[in-house]
């Protein structure tokens, strides 16, 4: 009897600890940031968000993230396809290299871009001759975002391609469809959910990216200052309210995207 | 056509991944072996690497234990309602959607010197923000989903039949866990650990905000790289970055190995 009693207390204690940890670490901080930014009502929130530097940084972030996502969708679809469908020397190696941006610290990623394309580098010098400015301008931010979000689309597309029934494709060929027709009418529709969820994950990650971008962006207010760097600046200059307001904007956007990804995935599983 | 696609793939990999990594390795040797050693043997480098090591160890230990337990509860627990379980399940992913900087800001807002809780901790002489505990908290927040997301699908896959059989036969819950559940989730946990180590090693945004980046006190390897770059001391930054990059490549190799084992089991 005593043993049972003790074990029940044990498991109760365990449950409470784990759930408390979960709520304290994840839920409470997120609620905290929403309450902080609306603490003084709508007006201060609106003032912080409508500061031209603030909304410009958010818009810039969204615009560049869209560009980075589009690039990644194109590259990711192609690479996912090549790595699954073709057999060639080095395929396994490339397949493991895909995860490198996840394993590498983002600050190191930023430094790499700076070294490769910076003003003293070969590529940077070449671009300068043609009048293209990369580092400390928008292209560098896009490159940093592409680098950081590189694995998402590939990793989302690959399992779908592996699952794909080859007989459908063969049937299409047998019925006389051309290669491109088969691709767009048979293969592409079954890849689409993967491309979509990968793209949305990549987009939300690009929105949030800080480490790689802060090193290469130059962070000129109103020009190359992206939202997360703006938030960091506000914290540094001791304006937590302004930082929280922009954070809420960015967070809400990310949450919507995450929710959409969930929707796409559950729908796919439900099918 | 096939040749063209393969060539293009190689081109993207080489330009986007291989060349930058090679550049980090060659860049660190720009001033020879002595420049590299000098960059690393600075007092702040050693201290920063030690801080990073400490954070990695603490965070990985805590995240592994709590992550596995939470995954068990979210999959198996009958005392959680279905709806509640679904809700908690989607909450797990939230840190993925939160920018690291915002994650850091949250901790500063909640536990910073001007907050109620922060003031309380300060009174009893326990510094959270701008000290190691805050940095650990920030990293825990960021790495939270990694372990849960690795273990949960495995638990769902194996089902609860074997565990139920074991407990019907009179095995204690501990015993059931170690002898029935653990062998089938082992490789998932190892994979989760590798991911956690990689992420906590490289965490930058959240730690930068929470730590205040005070040299020789709360500076980690990644924030040192940032500071060196800001100070135009690129060679020194390169030395530290090389150590981090070498670790990441090593982790990537372990990841591949664990993935293969995971597929076998």
Automatic annotation (TrEMBL), chain A:
Residues in ABC transmembrane type-1 domain copies: 58-261
Coiled-coil regions listed in the entry: none
Mode of membrane association: Multi-pass membrane protein
Superkingdom, taxonomy of origin: Bacteria
Protein keywords: Cell membrane, Membrane, Molybdenum, Sulfate transport, Transmembrane, Transmembrane helix, Transport
Subcellular location: Cell membrane; Membrane
Main location: membrane
Segments passing through the bilayer: 12-34, 54-84, 96-119, 139-161, 210-232, 244-264
UniProt cross-references to InterPro entries, sorted A to Z: CysT_permease (IPR011865), MetI-like (IPR000515), MetI-like_sf (IPR035906), ModB_ABC (IPR011867), Sulph_transpt2 (IPR005667)
UniProt KW Cell membrane keyword: yes
Heme recorded as keyword: no
Function of the protein: Part of the ABC transporter complex CysAWTP (TC 3.A.1.6.1) involved in sulfate/thiosulfate import. Probably responsible for the translocation of the substrate across the membrane.
Subunit structure of this chain's protein: The complex is composed of two ATP-binding proteins (CysA), two transmembrane proteins (CysT and CysW) and a solute-binding protein (CysP).
Stated family: Belongs to the binding-protein-dependent transport system permease family. CysTW subfamily.
Name of this chain's protein: Molybdenum transport system permease
TrEMBL record, chain B:
SUPFAM superfamilies given in the database record: MetI-like
Database matches in InterPro entries: MetI-like, MetI-like_sf, Sulph_transpt2
Record keywords: Membrane, Sulfate transport, Transmembrane, Transmembrane helix, Transport
Pfam families (alphabetical): BPD_transp_1
Transmembrane spans: 7-29, 49-75, 87-112, 124-148, 189-214, 234-255
Membrane topology note: Multi-pass membrane protein
PROSITE patterns, alphabetized: ABC_TM1
Cellular localization per UniProt: Membrane
Domain of life: Bacteria
Gene3D superfamilies named among the record's database cross-references: MetI-like
Domain ABC transmembrane type-1: 49-253
NCBIfam families per the UniProt record, alphabetical: 3a0106s02
Quaternary structure (record): The complex is composed of two ATP-binding proteins (CysA), two transmembrane proteins (CysT and CysW) and a solute-binding protein (CysP).
Described purpose of this protein according to its UniProt entry: Part of the ABC transporter complex CysAWTP (TC 3.A.1.6.1) involved in sulfate/thiosulfate import. Probably responsible for the translocation of the substrate across the membrane.
Database matches in PANTHER family: SULFATE TRANSPORT SYSTEM PERMEASE PROTEIN, SULFATE TRANSPORT SYSTEM PERMEASE PROTEIN CYSW
Protein name (database record): Sulfate ABC transporter permease subunit
């Amino acid at each position: 009897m005593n043993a049972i009693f003790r074990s029940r207390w044990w498991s109760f204690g365990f449950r409470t600890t784990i759930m408390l940890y979960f709520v304290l670490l994840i839920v409470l901080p997120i609620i905290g940031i929403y309450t902080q930014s609306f603490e003084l009502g709508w007006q201060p929130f609106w003032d912080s968000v409508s500061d031209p530097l603030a909304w410009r940084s958010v818009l810039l972030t969204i615009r560049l993230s869209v560009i980075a996502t589009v690039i990644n969708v194109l590259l990711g679809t192609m690479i996912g396809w090549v790595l699954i469908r073709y057999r060639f020397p080095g395929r396994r190696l490339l397949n493991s290299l895909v995860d490198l941006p996840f394993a590498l610290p983002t600050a190191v990623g930023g430094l790499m871009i700076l070294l490769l394309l910076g003003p003293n580098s070969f590529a940077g010098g070449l671009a300068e001759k043609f009048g293209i400015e990369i580092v400390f301008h928008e292209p560098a931010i896009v490159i940093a975002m592409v680098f950081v979000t590189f694995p998402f689309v590939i990793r989302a597309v690959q399992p779908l391609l592996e699952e794909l029934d080859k007989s459908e494709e063969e049937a299409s060929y047998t019925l006389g469809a051309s290669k491109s027709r088969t691709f767009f009418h048979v293969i592409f529709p079954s890849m689409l959910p993967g491309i979509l969820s990968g793209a949305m994950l990549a987009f939300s990650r690009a929105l949030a990216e800080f480490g790689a971008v802060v090193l290469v962006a130059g962070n000129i207010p109103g020009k190359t200052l992206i939202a997360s760097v703006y938030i960091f600046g506000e914290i540094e200059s001791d304006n937590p309210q302004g930082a929280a307001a922009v954070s809420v904007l960015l967070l809400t956007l990310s949450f919507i995207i995450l929710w959409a990804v969930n929707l796409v995935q559950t729908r796919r599983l439900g099918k | 056509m096939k040749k063209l696609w393969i060539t293009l793939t190689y081109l993207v990999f080489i330009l986007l991944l291989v060349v930058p990594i090679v550049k980090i390795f060659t860049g660190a040797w720009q001033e020879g072996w002595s420049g590299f050693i000098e960059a690393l043997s600075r007092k702040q480098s050693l201290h920063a690497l030690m801080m990073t090591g400490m954070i990695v160890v603490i965070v990985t230990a805590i995240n592994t234990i709590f992550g596995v337990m939470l995954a068990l509860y979210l999959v198996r627990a009958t005392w959680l309602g279905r709806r509640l379980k679904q809700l908690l399940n989607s909450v797990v992913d939230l840190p993925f959607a939160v920018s690291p900087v915002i994650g850091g800001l949250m901790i500063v807002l909640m536990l910073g010197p001007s907050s109620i809780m922060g003031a309380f901790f300060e009174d009893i002489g326990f510094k959270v923000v701008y000290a190691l505990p805050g940095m650990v908290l920030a990293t825990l927040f960021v790495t939270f989903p990694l372990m849960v997301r690795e273990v949960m699908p495995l638990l769902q896959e194996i089902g609860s039949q074997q565990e139920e059989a074991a407990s019907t036969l009179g095995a204690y819950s501990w015993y059931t866990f170690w002898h029935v559940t653990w062998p089938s989730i082992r490789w998932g946990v190892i994979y989760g650990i590798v991911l956690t180590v990689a992420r906590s090693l490289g965490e930058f945004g959240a730690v930068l905000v929470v730590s205040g980046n005070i040299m020789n006190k709360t500076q980690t390897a990644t924030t040192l790289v940032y500071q060196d770059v800001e100070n135009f001391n690129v060679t020194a930054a390169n030395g530290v970055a090389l150590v981090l990059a070498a670790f990441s490549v090593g982790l990537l190799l372990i990841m591949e190995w664990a993935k293969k084992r995971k597929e076998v089991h």
